[in-house]
Design brief:
Blueprint: E1 2-5, E2 12-15, E3 18-21, E4 24-27, H1 32-35, E5 75-79, E6 91-95
Antiparallel strand pairs: 1-2, 3-4, 5-6
Length: about 100
Amino acid sequence: MKIYKTPIKDLLIVRKKSYVDNRGFVKELIRENIIKKKFNFQIFTKSRKNVLRGLHLQKRHSQAKYISVLSGKILNVAVDLRNNSRTFGKHFFIIL
């Protein structure tokens, strides 16, 4: 597992390996002890091609968010909307 920082504070890129053989694959999703974030709320979604999922913002009870792509690719965009952040209003995007 490799962790890369982005220009936005607390926004990380986590690269992990999948272990593939003739039966299929195994991929570890998250290791809270390495990322040092607690993920209290975990969901799994499936989207069809050309689906746009909305912005997510929690003002009072902020949440860490982890996004992983099992098949295909997505354009993921993050915008820093934290008023007191030095990168407020900045964005970062990546194709996962």
